[in-house]
Design a protein that fits this description.
about 475 residues; mainly alpha; two-stranded antiparallel sheet; 21 helices; 2 strands; about 65% helix
Length: about 475
């Protein structure tokens, strides 16, 4: 009898899941979705797919007893408090003593005004819509990818999307194009940015795509049948390579395309954080496989060699940015910016300046030490603390940490699906590192992609069924 053919990528998938996959794949197209109309459309479509998912599979989320229910509930509570606090920052019936001093100055010039904790409540709506859309992406991925086949499809879509944007960037760069799509570049001329404006932001997105490609390749090679068992007894790696066919080697093409594009971004932070992400991925697999210290050392040493070689591939654009004087100059500017942000936070540590108000609030503090305008703090942690205040920002960080911890503990709980957990941990390592020196999580395409990967990792973090010995004990 002929063997049954596996369904093609989107065939036989729920409508809401298919729509969500297309949305996540296409959201980097309009400048990383970092335009109000693009981020609002993202939020609207995520809301629509959540509604369709709830109607198609009520209740929306159904967890087994093995699920980390306490951590999920605690994370949900923390996020709810963050959302409620961000709304509270915009209302005028809060105590007058809590209102930002700028409202008193405005009252002296304009007459009676309604003051708020936020320096500009009008900026709140778009920021909240973005935050809710990321939460929605997480929930949709969490709902869909409890099914391992759906998880594989999602990773493939993200990997191929990452390769497609990298291919576009390489094509534009090779043709000497100075445009993003059909718009003339107004920043980072000469650097590969694909459909993003900022090369550092694209590098972070490319890194996420690279991790997805690694996961796809790992899954593919697990299915390769060893042709020569004699060679396998001496070296399994040699036997595996000798068993590969042409189509298996072609599977490396998406990964190599992203690597080439990443190298040509010239982004120090992007390349370094991608290396940290890959390192997190490999270490997660090492923990899952219970590797010994010697094997860990070999992995770390090999990873370092790859990183040094990768930096060399970046060519003059990257090596010039690795120049000591260039690094020192950039670091001096960043430190001046961080110092001013620190002063702002110390002026209002508990209440914050309002969600999404960094650009407006920072105008009150910047001085001539900053030659460029700072629309973001170039440190997502400091920016969120300044926007929300210390307590609410810590709640936001706690919610994310709880979700990542589910993936970490899943390395021990799961026998299968370790690649999905490693992907979520690697992606978390990447964005956590990049967030220290840039604002990648303020770019919707990156934040939505990361939220999707994290949701996938959490969905695969607990066993699908109980272990045989546990089931036998329960029957007794």
């Amino acid at each position: 009898m002929p063997t049954a053919q596996k369904p093609f990528l989107f065939k036989h998938l729920p409508l809401w899941f298919t729509g969500f996959l297309l949305l996540i794949a296409l959201c980097p197209l309009p400048f990383g979705a970092n335009r109000p109309w693009a981020s609002d459309l993202l939020a609207a479509l995520v809301g629509l797919f959540l509604l369709l998912a709830a109607l198609a599979q009520p209740p929306l989320l159904r967890f087994s007893q093995e699920a980390p229910q306490k951590r999920l509930a605690l994370a949900a509570s923390a996020l709810l408090l963050v959302v409620l606090w961000s709304i509270f920052q915009t209302v005028s019936w809060t105590p007058t003593a809590w209102h930002h001093p700028i409202w008193k100055e405005a009252e002296g010039l304009l007459g009676p005004v309604r003051g708020t904790i936020s320096v500009d409540p009008s900026l709140f709506y778009e920021s909240l819509a973005r935050l809710l859309s990321y939460i929605g992406c997480f929930l949709l991925a969490l709902q869909a990818t409890r099914n391992p086949d759906h998880a594989k499809i999602m990773v493939r879509v993200l990997a191929y999307a990452g390769a497609a944007y990298a291919a576009y960037g390489l094509l534009a760069q090779s043709m000497g194009s100075n445009t993003i799509l059909w718009y003339k570049k107004w920043a980072y001329e000469g650097f590969l940015t694909s459909t993003f404006v900022n090369k550092n932001s694209y590098a972070a997105y490319a890194g996420l795509g690279l991790l997805c490609c690694i996961t796809v390749l790992r899954d593919r090679f697990h299915k390769v049948k060893i042709q020569d068992e004699v060679i396998a007894q001496k070296s399994r790696w040699v036997a595996l390579l000798s068993s590969l066919q042409t189509k298996d080697y072609l599977a490396f093409l998406p990964l190599l395309t992203i690597l080439a594009a990443l190298a040509l971004t010239g982004s120090r932070a992007g390349i370094t954080s991608t290396f940290i992400g890959v390192l997190g991925y490999v270490l997660a697999l090492a923990v899952h496989k219970r590797l010994k210290a010697k094997q860990w050392s070999l992995l770390l040493g090999g990873g370092l060699i790859v990183f040094v070689g990768f930096v060399a591939l970046g060519g003059e654009a990257l090596l010039s940015r690795m120049d000591q004087s260039q690094v020192a100059s950039d670091a001096e500017t960043r430190m001046a910016g961080y110092e001013l942000v620190g002063i702002a936070i110390s002026d209002n540590p508990w209440l914050g300046f309002g969600l999404g108000t960094f650009d407006s609030a920072f105008k009150l503090y910047r001085d001539n030490r900053l030659p460029l305008w700072y629309h973001h703090a170039h440190n997502d942690y400091l920016e969120m603390v300044m926007d929300l205040g210390i307590p609410a920002a810590l709640l936001l960080f706690l919610a994310i940490d709880l979700m990542v911890s589910c993936c970490v503990t899943g390395l021990w709980a799961r026998r299968k699906g370790s690649g999905f957990l490693a992907l979520a941990i690697g992606a978390s390592s990447l964005v956590a590192a990049h967030a220290f020196v840039d604002f990648s999580l303020h770019i919707p395409a990156i934040a939505a992609t990361y939220a999707t990967i994290l949701g996938l990792g959490v969905a695969q973090s607990w066993p699908t069924r109980k272990k045989p010995e546990e089931a036998a004990t329960k029957k007794r």
